[in-house]
Amino acid sequence: MKKYVFLIFLVTITMAFITLNNQLREDPQYIAPSKQRSGNAAKGFTYLTTGDYLKSGIPYTMFFMGALKDTANYLNRKDFNKNVPHDFTAVKAPNGEMIVAPNCLQCHAQVFDGKLIVGLGNSLSDYTINRTPTTLFLEKYLQSLTGDNVKKYDAAKNFINSLKVVAPQLITSTKGVNLADGLAFLLVSHRDPATLQWSNKSLMDQPNEIMPTDVPAWWLLKKKNAMFYNGFGRGDFGRFLMASNLLTVTDTAEAKEVDSHFNDVLTYINSIEAPKFPRAVNTPMAAEGKEIFSANCAACHGSYGIGAKYPNLLIPESIIQTDSSLFTANYSNPQMVNWFNNSWFSTGDHPAKLVPYRGYIAPPLDGIWVTAPYLHNGSVPNLEGVLNSKARPKYWKRNFNTANYNYEIPGYQFEVKDAPGGPDIYNTTLKGFSNEGHYFGDDLTAKERRSVIEYLKTL
After folding, report:
1. 132 beta partners
2. Pairing mode of beta strands 395-397, 425-427
3. How far apart (Å, rounded) are the C-alpha atoms in residues 367 and 276?
4. Contact 233, 222 (CB under 8 A)
5. Count of CB atoms situated within 10 Å of the CB of 234
6. How far apart are CA 63 and CA 42, in angstroms?
7. Residues ≥6 apart with Cβ < 8 Å to 302
8. Would you write out the chain's pLDDT as a tens digit for each of its 459 residues?
9. Got the DSSP string for 296-352?
10. Burial 169-200 (b: 16+ CB within 10 A, else e)
11. How many CB atoms sit inside 10 A of residue 305's CB?
12. Residues 6+ positions from 217 with CB-CB distance below 8 Å
């Protein structure tokens, strides 16, 4: 009798532990869709690449004192933009002065194998340089101008004010990662949420750290019901896409005018398709990989081909186990969430809002072969490491001057290093740079992983 009582007690305790573990280990959460505006894709592309959504910048004549003329002209632009790099745009400032300002392709395009791929996240960004001295020199020079040239400073003033705030803090130790989320926080900290007007004094506590991110491909957006890696960008996507306007915006009247174009920009982005893998694929191996993928990966990342489905699931921290720094910093900072959800961006007939979440969205995988490095912080150099955590290097280096790509196992060619070093070496021991988590491929055999990789080339 005592034996049975003990067994019942043991079962009860075991079930209690299972229940507690399930409570701590949240289930994936479905993201419901939000109504989106539609527009004209051709107009969206034109506005994206030649539009004045930033109305302040470097005077045109001065821009080429510090930058070479771009003879590639990947975007086939004309007139003043013909020789301006693809990630900058020449526009007229409100006072009529021609200026050059950064555009969205700073983060959302990359030259890959000699071609510009619009929509590919730029994995070659360099935020390791403090641009404060250059900014202050530019300001001092422009302020010294007289006569008609005074207009040049007026046209650059808003741009310079923003750079003076962000340049000292928007610095990281490693090339290739992106700090745009942190940039957004720094900019809103100097703007009134209702009027968007600039304040030289910060209206929020400044962050101690800005966490790195990799830039997701734009062609994935059409499948997603929320924006950003933690899926907290809800409502109208155009409002988030136009947030770069915060760099130089004067007031809500200007923001409204810029916003009126972003239904077209979103329509263009939704027209972008993932580039096809340019080399031969082992078809029998890819077929085997598809079966393995369907059994092990599709529940989160979706299915592809005929009858394709994408589940739009947020995966909680307890399951994904990847570096948590991003969803607790940058955009997710409580001050930022409160600012945004009570700002001009949350008003009108197509509002947006931020809904924080402790975890990350499982993204679609279209074109994954070209989107290295991997995970939300770009900490894993190739697809083998995504599926095999033991293959992830602690310190690794790639060449940013000649970006050699490995088509056999998609990802950048890299060298494993024994210790951290210069800005070309990725250091996974730093906060925000960890390559931990996403252990779902570790139980596969080497052959199974190789088959999955071959299948992923076909997406």
Report:
1. none
2. antiparallel
3. 7
4. no
5. 20
6. 28
7. 223, 308, 309, 310, 311, 364, 365
8. 444 444 444 444 444 333 334 334 589 999 999 999 999 999 999 999 999 999 999 999 899 987 888 999 999 999 999 999 999 999 999 999 999 999 999 999 999 999 999 999 999 999 999 999 999 999 999 999 999 899 999 999 999 999 999 999 999 999 999 998 889 989 999 999 999 999 999 998 877 788 999 999 999 999 999 999 999 999 999 999 999 999 999 999 999 999 999 999 999 999 999 999 999 999 999 999 999 999 999 999 999 999 899 999 999 999 999 999 988 876 678 888 999 999 999 999 999 999 999 999 999 999 999 999 999 999 999 999 999 999 999 999 999 987 789 999 999 999 999 999 999 999 999 999 999 999 999 999 999 999 999 999 999
9. HTHHHH---STT-----EEEEHHHH----TGGGSGGGSHHHHHHHHTSGGG-SSS-E
10. bbebbbbbbbbbbbbbbbbbbbbbbeebebee
11. 8
12. 119, 120, 121, 274, 366, 367, 370, 371
Q: Is 394 exposed, middle or buried (0-12, 13-18, 19+ CB in 10 A)?
A: middle
Measured on CA atoms in the order 26, 28, 34, 38, is the torsion positive or negative? positive
448: which 2 tokens? 């199974």
**Based on the number of CB atoms within 10 Å of its own CB, is 68 exposed (0-12), middle (13-18) or buried (19 or more)?**
exposed
**Which stretch of DSSP H or E encloses residue 397?**
strand 395-397
CB 162 within 8 A of CB 111: no
Taking the whole predicted model, whether its pTM rises above 0.90 is answered as yes
427, 420 in Cβ contact below 8 A? yes
Q: Taking a C-beta distance cutoff of 8 angstroms, is the pair 110, 121 a contact?
A: yes
Rounded Cα distance, 100 and 89, in Å: 5
- For residue 419, give every residue at least 6 positions away whose Cβ sits within 8 Å of its Cβ, in sequence order, or none: 395
The Cα diameter of the chain in Å comes to 102
Structure tokens at 77: 């632009």
| CA end-to-end span of the chain | 61
Q: Which two tokens stand for residue 435?
A: 């390559």
